[in-house]
From TrEMBL:
The keyword DNA damage is annotated on this UniProt entry: no
Cofactor note: Binds 1 zinc ion per subunit.
Cofactor: Zn(2+)
UniProt family annotation: Belongs to the KduI family.
Task of the protein: Catalyzes the isomerization of 5-dehydro-4-deoxy-D-glucuronate to 3-deoxy-D-glycero-2,5-hexodiulosonate.
EC number: 5.3.1.17
Higher taxonomy: Bacteria, Pseudomonadati, Pseudomonadota, Alphaproteobacteria, Hyphomicrobiales
Name of protein: 4-deoxy-L-threo-5-hexosulose-uronate ketol-isomerase
Residues of the signal peptide: none
Length: 287
């Protein structure tokens, strides 16, 4: 349970068929696929999705640590939230500290943490409340327990991609990935665009065997990302502001361009962990 004085919100998002999604106006698209206010100072907010049962959460502890509550346990019908789930998180704020049962982990900016299934207690804290940690958290069903592990930015697998000519020069950092550490199904990483580059994930693709979620961050107040979604032949878009997340169904493309350089955290859950399992879409086939 969180300490007295902390707050939390929990919501559930049900899966949507593409036929229904193509009838949505902007308000309905945003209500179903855009997750706002995840990273709220002094709160642990969560959105539980019916896409591969992935949960998106944000914890920004101030003077008081934050923890999962009975509401998070009820979401999954267990005595505690991670009874049969694994957790991955990346810190995009100040120095933070996570306690998982008896183990404590200190995380700097852009460090990640994996916590295995069966962990009964998880607490999130900031080393300096005036410069709070910002933990972006994902949890997903797990069939086995793997050991908890801290993955620093230096330990992540860095893959440079793109070019300045196509405005998509970027570096992908793979944190929760089979080449870095074992997990059951959760895959998680971070992409940082170079200065002057704005496009991510183009040419577009889908992967019908997995869903994906994006958290965009390091966007100035007057900037945004145009996130493209939908079937390749019937695309839609979302205007996404700083520290907002997008839930991407398996039938949807997921790419976009920003009004400035930015970074984003991507995560996936589903049938496999093959990063290259993509059904590529030819540029001329997008509508």
């Amino acid at each position: 349970m969180p300490a007295q004085g902390t707050t939390a919100s929990v919501e559930t998002r049900h899966a949507v068929h593409w036929r229904e999604a193509e009838t949505f106006d902007t308000k309905a698209l945003r209500a179903h696929f855009l997750v706002q206010d995840l990273l709220t100072p002094g709160a642990l907010n969560a959105t539980y999705t019916h896409y591969d049962r992935l949960m998106l959460a944000g914890a920004v502890p101030l003077a008081t640590p934050l923890a999962f509550t009975d509401a998070h346990a009820r979401l999954v019908g267990s005595e505690h939230h991670l009874a049969r789930r694994e957790l991955g998180l990346i810190n995009i704020g100040g120095p933070g500290r996570v306690t998982a049962d008896a183990a404590t982990f200190d995380l700097g900016f852009q460090d990640a943490l994996y916590i295995g299934a069966g962990t009964a207690s998880v607490t999130f804290a900031s080393v300096d409340p005036d410069n709070p940690a910002k933990f972006y958290i994902n949890t997903a069903p797990a069939h086995a327990r793997h050991p908890a592990r801290l993955i620093t930015k230096a330990a992540a697998k860095a893959i440079p991609l793109g070019s300045q000519e196509s405005a998509n020069k970027r570096t992908i950092y793979q944190y929760l990935h089979p080449d870095v550490l074992p997990t059951c199904q959760l895959v998680m990483g971070l992409t940082r665009l170079d200065s002057g580059s704005v496009w991510n994930t183009m040419p577009a693709h889908t992967h019908d065997r997995r869903m994906e979620a994006y958290l965009y961050f390091e966007l100035p107040q007057d900037a945004f990302t145009v996130h493209l979604m939908g079937r390749p032949e019937a695309t839609r878009h979302l205007i996404v502001r700083n520290e907002q997340a997008v839930v991407s169904p398996p039938w949807s493309i997921h790419c976009g361009a920003g009004t400035t350089s930015y970074a984003f955290i991507w995560s996936m859950a589903g049938d496999n962990q093959a990063f290259t399992d993509m059904d590529m879409i030819a540029m001329q086939d997008l509508r």
